[in-house]
Specification:
Layout lengths: L23 H13 L3 E2 H4 L5 H6 L4 E4 L25 H12 L3 E6 L10 H14 L4 E5 L7 H9 L4 E3 L9 H4 L5 H14 L4 E8 L5 H13 L4 E6 L16 H14 L3 E4 L13 E5 L2 E4 L2 H6 L1
Parallel strand pairs: 2-3, 3-4, 4-5, 5-6, 6-7, 7-8
Antiparallel strand pairs: 1-2, 9-10
Helix pairs in contact: 4-5, 5-6, 6-8
Length: 308
């Protein structure tokens, strides 16, 4: 049942969540380009706090399959109205935009489309294919929904040959009924595990939001579960309540605690961890990777990264 948060008062944000001012020229250039190509971004639709920085760096996370989600996760700012049919021209428009922006690392995500028989997997595959044709040297990361547990749908995405498959666990198991009532903790872990089994050359990645009421012990348990699913890339960020209608922020996690959690996760076996208040699953995603061969990207170890 959806919790009534209308009377919730936003706790004051700490200084470390304040955003820096970035280049308006580059920002406006990206906005204009995206508008002309009729391209949606999760940066805008989900009210990402990093939109100013990312657009100013001429990067963006493309949102496919429309702006309306078929689920009502309590943390998400994306619309929940009835979705429209997929736009068959969208993959080619995104590929053209990638080429125009000169992107060498592309992140694609989508709303959840439980109304579609394949959950939108075919549209993901088509988008990957179009980008491969126009910018074959680009690395592609896809942040996918759970496809309601469909192995067939996931295989469609895997066979399109992305470099990274990302699926966010989002929060600890105990909070799923309150935060993600239409999702399943075990199903999300299974997706990560299956993706690795289907193609071990594809890297898998996941993310968790902090400040929703989780405990340190529960976080460690999630870390173990994600590692057991074969996933070695992790992002940790602060949950920010989009409105008083959404799940409330329980606390703002201090940057030092994010640093500590990063060290814990690395000691437990993760190869790369991005951890900080403003970290999101696609934030500076390109910086987590280093090109190894023309066919595939790989992770840098911590020592290699420090020596570059």
């Amino acid at each position: 049942m959806r919790q009534n948060c209308k009377n919730t008062v936003f706790p004051p944000k700490p200084l470390w969540l304040r955003q820096k001012v970035h280049s308006a020229t580059e920002f406006n250039s990206v906005v204009k380009l995206l508008k002309s190509k009729r391209i949606l971004t999760v940066c805008k639709e989900a009210n990402c706090p990093n939109i100013g920085e990312c657009f100013s760096r001429r990067t963006a996370t493309f949102l496919i399959l429309g702006e309306n989600c078929t689920r009502s996760c309590r943390f998400c700012a994306v619309n929940h109205e009835a979705p429209k049919p997929p736009d068959p021209d969208e993959p080619s428009r995104i590929a053209e935009t990638v080429r125009t922006m000169g992107l060498m690392y592309v992140v694609i995500t989508s709303v959840t489309r439980d109304d579609l028989s394949d959950g939108g997997a075919g549209h993901f595959a088509a988008t990957i294919s179009e980008i491969r044709k126009s910018t074959p040297e680009a690395r592609i990361e896809v942040l996918v929904p759970d496809f309601r547990g469909s192995e067939k749908a996931l295989l469609m995405v895997v066979q399109a040959n992305p470099d990274v498959i990302n699926h966010n666990i989002e929060t600890v198991k105990r909070l799923y009924p309150a935060v993600r009532p239409e999702a399943e903790y075990s199903r999300s872990l299974e997706l990560l595990k299956r993706a690795r089994l289907m193609d071990t050359s594809i890297l898998t990645k996941s993310g968790i939001m902090l400040g929703m009421g989780e405990t340190q012990e529960e976080l460690r348990r999630v870390f173990v579960d994600i590692l057991d699913a074969g996933c070695k890339i992790l992002t940790l960020g602060q949950y920010l309540q989009p409105s008083t209608e959404h799940y409330p922020v329980k606390r703002y996690v201090h940057p030092e605690e994010f640093d500590n959690l990063r060290e814990i996760a690395l000691e437990m076996g993760f190869q790369k961890v991005a951890s900080g208040p403003l970290v999101r699953s696609s934030y500076h995603a390109d910086e987590l990777f280093q090109v190894n061969t023309p066919a595939r990207s790989r992770l840098l170890t911590e020592n290699e990264h420090e020596n570059k």
